[in-house]
């Protein structure tokens, strides 16, 4: 149940952010080819929508294992090293993303008093994308590690 809910939230966040990005870019294009002035906030909004789209999609990429693997090197290793790497790589990545999530909270708190130049919202909103990305990747890495441990038992 929790897994489906997190997956749906990440999908919805990715879709809404991508649609927001498309809307702001189309608005910029339309305004440039018509007598209307381009609103000053569109560039900053499109950048923010892009950042959030990537943040939501990063967890989904980890879930579906869409990240690049260096199979050319991996396949040359002996079976014992492959088993070790199969658990070590996600474990080390999990540690790094958990550390990143902890520091992302501090980064969000630091950004709360700052204001966005053209849109006027606090920058903690923009920095929150780092927390979303690191926690969603951590969640799916933890699930992967648990699956590896469960499957390696005799």
UniProtKB/TrEMBL annotation:
- TM ranges are 12-35, 47-66, 87-109, 121-142
**Places the protein is found:** Cell inner membrane
**Keywords, alphabetical:** Cell inner membrane, Cell membrane, Membrane, Transmembrane, Transmembrane helix, Transport
Keyword Cell inner membrane assigned:
yes
Q: Name a GO molecular-function annotation.
A: transmembrane transporter activity
A Pfam family hit = DctQ
**What is the superkingdom listed in this entry's lineage?**
Bacteria
What is the topology of this protein in the membrane according to its UniProt annotation?
Multi-pass membrane protein
Which ranges form a coiled coil? none
- Cellular component aspect of the GO annotation: plasma membrane
Among its keywords, does the record have Membrane?
A: yes
Question: Domain named Tripartite ATP-independent periplasmic transporters DctQ component: which ranges?
Answer: 23-149
Q: Which GO terms describe its biological process?
A: C4-dicarboxylate transport
Q: Report the main location listed first in the record.
A: membrane
- Which PANTHER family does this chain map to? 2,3-DIKETO-L-GULONATE TRAP TRANSPORTER SMALL PERMEASE PROTEIN YIAM (PTHR35011:SF2)
Similarity comment? Belongs to the TRAP transporter small permease family.
UniProt protein name = TRAP-type C4-dicarboxylate transport system, small permease component
Lineage, top ranks = Bacteria, Pseudomonadati, Bacteroidota, Flavobacteriia, Flavobacteriales
